[in-house]
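Re: weekly structure request thread

Next one in the queue (333 aa):
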Amino acid sequence: MFKNKSYHFLLIEDNDGDYYLISDYLKEKLPEHSLTRYSRFSDFKENELNVKYDAILLDLNLPDNKGNDLVTKICHLFAEIPIIVLTGEVFEEFALHAISLGASDYLIKDNLNPDILYKSIIYSIERKANLQLLKKSQQLYYDLFEFNPQPTWVYDLETLRFLDVNEKAINHYGYSKEEFLNMTIKDIRPKEDIPIMEASLKDFKAEKKLEGKRIFTHLKQNGSEIQVKIDSKIITYMNRRAAIIVATDITEEIEHQQIIEKQNEELKNITWIQSHLVRAPVAKILSIVKETTWHELNGEERNFLFKGLNDSATELDGITRQIIGKSEAILQL
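Done, posted below.
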């Protein structure tokens, strides 16, 4: 697969003999390739920096630059391209230093052969590609973490200490990042909730399915309590078994729901009043009006009926005022 692929290499080498040798090695192992050569660091043109090389082979001792300074500059100019350092000298300490500066590999020219060069190039290309994927993945994690609109944090599953928090968590809870990183997740929970938290955490660490709505009470820095809905996932963070948490504050939502429930309860009371208490005086009034022949009544009977109408009307007026009062109270919730 690799041998049939077309590659474009850059060789920075001032020695003609080494250039021809490396060129022959490449032709033997990677026939479908092109090779650009420079003999000096100063030969680079600005437009060369835009060329997409698959790998760079760098001689450590050029006429106008060498050693650490050369490796540093090339790695800076071609940060996304694997760089293989070539040298005629064996310095293990410098070889490690070159890798730390950004080089992908370090080869001794006297030990070089087609197989060694081929393996180094292929491994370096694949390693660099994997590192770039990892870097993109880490950047994506950072963006999702830092720009999450909800408070988000990572904590160590063993020590329960906060390992990282996003800006939203800092602003919402009132702790500084330094304060967070010196706390555990127990510090944002009421003391009476700790046993429940520990029981839930035990199941979570065992990766058991967590039941329920996952709504908990959290404490802000000022001591106020909030109700939060927790979404959590176990991850590996800096070689530690950890958990990433997204906390959605639903305090206002719960309070709003409680108001609605209270309103509904009051509406039920009003309905009961209308269906039971209102009907009695209304039925009494209707009965008096319907069953009475006024011209046949004497004065005492008329007075008795008028008193009944007045009492029923007064009762009905009181019930109406009670309904109006309850309705106004509902509007103020």
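The chain is about 50% helix and 20% strand. The CA atoms of residues 283 and 312 lie 9 Å apart.
Next request, please.
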